[in-house]
Amino acid sequence: MLTTSLPGGTWTLGGLTVTRFGYGAMQLAGPGVMGPPADRDGALAVLRTAVELGITHIDTSAAYGPTVTNQLIREALHPYPDSLHIVTKVGANRDPQGGWPPARDPQSLRRSVHENLETLGLDVLDLVNLRLGDAAGPLPGSLAEAFETLADLQRQGLIRHLGVSNATPEQVAEAQAIAPIVCVQNMYNLAHRRDDELIDALAGQGVAYVPFFPLGGFSPLQSSVLSTVAARLEAAPMSVALAWLLRRSPNILLIPGTSSAAHLRENIAGAALSLSNDDLAELDTIGR
């Protein structure tokens, strides 16, 4: 059942209503996002806990594992509740060394969309993000051929909504000239605020912004200001970082990942932390 009790309430992605506090499944795979998890039962439990707590937005990709997280999602949650919406990404594969080589040619994109459909056990994907750039971040260049391929798959009825990930503002605009997008998924957090202007522009258009690495990536955010505010509020720095993101703009959706059901509950509780205007002003100095 859809709930609004999670921090941040809900947002509409096209015609899909999702909780602003979602769940990112990337960490369910093994080390380096390769292979199976060390604790398969724990991985299944965190997915079921997410849905039990009312989360209706799960982010994944067939490249995670590869296919490991999709298979876990299917085992844990299929048949899916009507309120649950699964978002996936295409545009990168995995190599034996654990790298993320691009796979944005039309044939690779079509194969990846069908792989996501098969491994998730779906007839249509709610939302597919086109992953651009590389592990270091966005790179300039046209996305036209790749995004037109996804738009064609959307017209065929295999995809409901489209988005872009790891994209420059210019690539966002180029995608929008080809087909409507409902979200942009880029790296963003208190300390990495390159997309401030983009977030505000998307908010005005009713387009969601989904920060990946909201807590600083695989290393926690390090900031004396963050630590000071957290100590004053008697909260964990990561709780403050999540709460700040929800306050930053109403179009920001969170997908923090974890392989622990207990940690998932902690993340939800942390994101509900109340921040005063003075707290926000102090935190805003971190990424400026």
Automatic annotation (TrEMBL):
From which residue to which does the signal peptide run? Answer: none
Taxonomically, the superkingdom here is Bacteria
InterPro entries, sorted: AKR, Aldo-Keto_reductase, NAD(P)_OxRdtase_dom_sf, NADP_OxRdtase_dom
Q: Which Pfam families match?
A: Aldo_ket_red
Report keywords, A-Z: Oxidoreductase
Q: Where is the NADP-dependent oxidoreductase domain?
A: 22-286
Q: What is this protein called?
A: Aldo/keto reductase family oxidoreductase
Recorded source organism is: Micromonospora parva
